[in-house]
Every structure is written in structure tokens, then in C-alpha cells.
Design brief:
Blueprint lengths: L2 H4 L3 E3 L2 E3 L4 E2 L14 H11 L5 E2 L12
Parallel strand pairs: 3-4
Antiparallel strand pairs: 1-2
């Protein structure tokens, strides 16, 4: 892949990414009782400001049995 493509825009369905840099999900196991905390707000906020075109958050469970 040509390195210049890394910084070019990319459409994924209806979304347009400003570049092709993707931050993958990383299970940090830092949720309190399965709920997001201030740590998550700061962590994902900093990643969102990094300049990557897409940020994928970690796994979630919608019910206690899924944890």
C-alpha cells in the first residue's frame, strides 16, 4: 500500500473518514460493575483527539449475564 493512501479520505457506507488510520478495540477491563467511568471518558477522549480517522471502542455487555 502506498503510504500516501494512509492519509487519504475513505468512505465506509455513509461515513467519510478523514484518513485510513483506525484505532482498534482494546479491552482495558476497567469498567466498574460493567459501566463506563470517568477513566473511559478521558481515555477515549484522548484517543478521539489523536487524529485517527476511526476509533472502535471495546466490547460491552448489555446485561449482567453477558459480562
Amino acid at each position: 500500500m502506498n503510504s500516501s493512501n494512509l492519509f487519504s479520505e475513505k468512505n465506509i457506507g455513509p461515513f467519510q473518514l478523514k484518513n485510513r488510520i483506525v484505532i482498534p478495540p482494546m479491552c482495558q477491563y476497567s469498567a466498574a460493575n460493567g459501566q463506563a467511568t470517568d477513566w473511559h471518558l478521558m481515555h477515549y477522549g484522548n484517543l478521539a483527539l489523536s487524529g485517527a480517522g476511526m476509533l472502535i471502542v471495546e466490547a460491552t455487555a448489555v446485561c449482567p449475564e453477558g459480562r
